[in-house]
Amino acid sequence: MKAVYVYRLTSDTGLAPCVKNGLLTLACCKGGQIRGEKVISTGLRYRIGTKRKQDGVDYSADDVYILGIFQDKMLYIAKVDNVITMEEYYNGTSKGRTDDIYRINNGKLERNKWLQNEKVHTEPGRIMRDLAGKYVLLSKDFVYLGKDAVDVRLLEKYIPRYQETKFYKNKDAEIIISECLKCDDGKSHMPTTPFRKSGGCR
Fold it and tell me: For residues 73 and 192, what is the distance between their CA atoms, to the nearest angstrom?
């Protein structure tokens, strides 16, 4: 079965997704929520990573993709090859990558100094939501267009209007994935605004 999660990005800084050395990662942003004083594990990373398959798909058995839309254009599409916990990722795998903004200290995740001067994910609420996502999505099978993102007219009816995540499977997913993969030009692309001071992704 094919399935795809479609969401909007508010910025493209190279943080989420992060693309380096042939690996795309979604390790922060798209995390949990804060409801009152309670932190809820939810969001795109959690939905795909949790063993409680909320959408009836399993990335290890199905072809599960994530599609990022930025300024009404296709920014990237990635097939989820693997999912690991944030603790696993930030215990060495993230070293040297743009999204290396956490570290393990006494067995717990905490914000490190990387990109703090740029005010990237430094607010307590943002950090709490990041950590509530719990998982990191990894892909070696992706198309990332960055600042060269393209219009994909066929996708207009599938794209979320707001900061929500749309989920499609079977025929709809096949149409979306097929159309997006046609945009692969085999080239490397830079983020639209690297290290944007607002760190504005969700």
Answer: 12
Distance between CA atoms of 43 and 146, rounded to whole angstroms?
23
Residue 144 has pLDDT above 90, yes or no: yes
pLDDT score for 202: 37
Q: Residues 6 or more apart from 119 whose CB is under 8 A from it? A: 197, 198, 199
Residue found under tokens 């290890």: 60
Q: How high is the mean pLDDT of the chain?
A: 92
DSSP string over the chain:
-EEEEEEEES--SSSSSEEETTEEEE-SSS--EEETTEEE--SHHHHHHSSS-TTS--TTTSEEEEEEEETTEEEEEEE--EEEEHHHIIIIITTTSTT--EEEETTEEEE-STTTTTT-S-SHHHHHHHHHT-EEEEESEEEE-GGG-B--GGGTTTS-SSS-EEEEEHHHHHHHHHHHHTT--S-----SSTT-TT----
Is the pLDDT at 199 greater than 60? The verdict is no
Whether the model clears a pTM of 0.90, i.e. scores above it, the answer is: yes
Higher pLDDT, 25 or 54: 25
How far apart, in whole angstroms, are the C-alpha atoms of residue 37 and residue 166? Answer: 27
